């Protein structure tokens, strides 16, 4: 499917607007121009924030049943047009059409969960008479929306990660301004289209397209913004924290995810799950499998099976249902991954398969014998590269898993319940998947990490907590 190049509009305060200056959106597969979006200015961002001030009051006054209706209607709209949504996800980003179809389906699920959680945003009664002298007091607390939320979203899940911010924000009664990644803005605009079609009041949602260097600082530093929800890289996250001022911050900043495979594991399952976890979306996945620690007794067998399965991966045209993996988001990113692999090999790593680049495409790559001082062993690769590392036992695997400054999710393959529980208690991560790779998530679970992997938690119920505040109400009764 080819998108007509007609120039998309951005949504500011309920109005779809265009600008003379535009950003080109290109397919990373062949650099083909897909469409253009407005290049917003500082003045546009200030207008956006002023509109959101109005929207915050409107959103807070929306009854819960109306929030539920709107979010469900937006989900219905996406479901009715899901092939169009999947096509745009695949064209503007790295995902194959099969991966994009799954993302569109997950976005629908994310919105439906948001609608359901809106009805469960409850408070509770408080026993004021637990304190002597307060016997004549009764009360409760309830949760209220915080106001305006700024959502800064990445390219790797250009629809569902936006929905993970927009759905809970609206469910909680907030206004939200979305600044999508400049390379993948079309999916976020399509999500806004769904909410406009659903009858969301003007000013509650804005999606502003533009370069971060032009409009980012205003969004981050403006005192009217009460929360920043950011998904992206560590350096950008640290910069936001330095500039943001006194406001709530939720961040998911990536990882260098470990998977442990013990001798009693189902090797076939471990290989299949870990290969998929390593190369989904060309490895541009915060949960992607990066380091696999294999107990020495099964290292040779696991390595052979893993390399064989990797070499069966079909890399090519994203729009073909036969393709397993497409390109990285830009050729620049592929070159970055290429340099990380070359550095590791120069320091003694052994290339088992892959290691070849063709434009923005980088072959699924497997390394072993990787020195621990390599950047690829310590940092987030965000590309289709995985490291196979032998370990003597679970203790060594845990120690090595915890040796980096990230801690989002981990996986372990074992049939031993005691070893599984030891890993659960000792691994420094926000989530651990037993007999699955690190790359597993449902949209309802709390999602986030420790150390440099971020602050706070997403996942609809938990995002709703982050996007609201408790207000205490206490009645002092007369003695009658």
Automatic annotation (TrEMBL):
<dbReference type="InterPro" id="IPR016162">
    <property type="entry name" value="Ald_DH_N"/>
</dbReference>
<dbReference type="GO" id="GO:0008911">
    <property type="term" value="F:lactaldehyde dehydrogenase (NAD+) activity"/>
</dbReference>
<dbReference type="InterPro" id="IPR016163">
    <property type="entry name" value="Ald_DH_C"/>
</dbReference>
<dbReference type="Pfam" id="PF00171">
    <property type="entry name" value="Aldedh"/>
</dbReference>
<keyword id="KW-0560">Oxidoreductase</keyword>
<comment type="similarity">
    <text>Belongs to the aldehyde dehydrogenase family.</text>
</comment>
<dbReference type="InterPro" id="IPR015590">
    <property type="entry name" value="Aldehyde_DH_dom"/>
</dbReference>
<feature type="domain" description="Aldehyde dehydrogenase">
    <location>
        <begin position="16"/>
        <end position="473"/>
    </location>
</feature>
<comment type="function">
    <text>Part of the sulfo-TAL (or sulfo-SFT) pathway, a D-sulfoquinovose degradation pathway that produces sulfolactate (SL). Catalyzes the oxidation of 3-sulfolactaldehyde (SLA) to sulfolactate (SL).</text>
</comment>
<dbReference type="InterPro" id="IPR016161">
    <property type="entry name" value="Ald_DH/histidinol_DH"/>
</dbReference>
<dbReference type="InterPro" id="IPR051020">
    <property type="entry name" value="ALDH-related_metabolic_enz"/>
</dbReference>
<protein>
    <recommendedName>
        <fullName>3-sulfolactaldehyde dehydrogenase</fullName>
        <ecNumber>1.2.1.97</ecNumber>
    </recommendedName>
</protein>
